[in-house]
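Consortium newsletter contribution from the modelling node. Members have asked for a concrete example of what our holo predictions look like. Here is one, prepared for the NAP complex that several groups have been discussing at recent meetings.
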Amino acid sequence: MPSSTYLAGAVTVLAAVFALRRILNTKNYRFGLVQPTEERVLILGASSGLGRTLAKQYAARGAKVCAVARRSEPLAELAQECGDGCLPFVADLTDVADMEKLRELLLRQWGGLDTLHICAGVSAVQPVMALAGIKSGNEEDPDAGSVRSATEIAGRAVQGNFFGPLTAALMFIPMLKRTSPSPAILLVSSVAAIVPAPTRGLYAATKAASLLLFQSLAIEHPEIAFTCVLPATIEGNFRSSAVDAHLSQKIDETNKKGLKLEYVASRCADAVDEGLRGNIVLPWMPYAIAHHLYYILPSFIEKQARKKYNFTA
Ligand SMILES: NC(=O)c1ccc[n+]([C@@H]2O[C@H](COP(=O)([O-])OP(=O)(O)OC[C@H]3O[C@@H](n4cnc5c(N)ncnc54)[C@H](OP(=O)(O)O)[C@@H]3O)[C@@H](O)[C@H]2O)c1
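And here is the predicted structure:
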């Protein structure tokens, strides 16, 4: 049988498995327990991009929304656009004292929490060796200072993409379980966490770390519906947050070609409404397939990834 027939067969089987998984993982009960206009929603990372769009969608349907980020100006603008339902709170997700104040505020104002969306994240865009100043084609050994500087940059990615979500989980899981009839947590991860790509090593590794952390939390806390959304590139300025931005020249360009913010935000809200558990890969094709194909044909995925990123080894 030709290999294209095997591939078509494998794709069909995977598609059937994913369709079945979606049916089995959907509980569809949440609106019976949490009315959309009563829902208390916390969005971490809401001053721009996906979190901001999500906050506006929740406010438009009458939910109580607490929008959190470090920059106060865009948060104040968001609160004005959203009206009374929006509670802005300036805080750093990785700062335990900030998160404790936030928890106290939510208990005081709302008496608890139903839904937590963790949208905050930081990008990284350099090949791993470039973090230590080694360019492609250069086989020199980096000195200790360069390696140290690379690990410091990596620490910022770990801080933003792993310690941040970890702090949020530790701070809010008990309160969600205690105060909501149908608690839900959605982590915005990335396709990069499951499909390797050149120049995204740091980003991918740190997003994968929090993804696995939340998948484990889902097993430890079955009362909470955990959803992880793994989008491909989204329109916007995410790359300007890169922890290694100082090593690159053209990073400020707004990406206009990615997934639409409204689309990704409504997929996040819908997933929580439906009680959908597990990973949602956006778009499913080709990335969910690529993830599984990596186990069968790693060199094929590696070649495609180099091509997509125009990367020469
Ligand atoms: N854009 C993409 O192509 C893409 C693709 C796949 C997945 N994702 C994921 O999607 C999520 C949202 O990305 P986006 O495109 O919306 O990026 P964005 O526009 O840069 O938004 C990131 C948000 O997170 C906040 N934030 C970052 N670190 C924070 C911290 N320590 N404490 C509090 N808030 C913090 C930022 O606000 P402040 O700076 O004001 O704190 C901002 O509101 C990220 O988790 C990212 O990994 C993005």
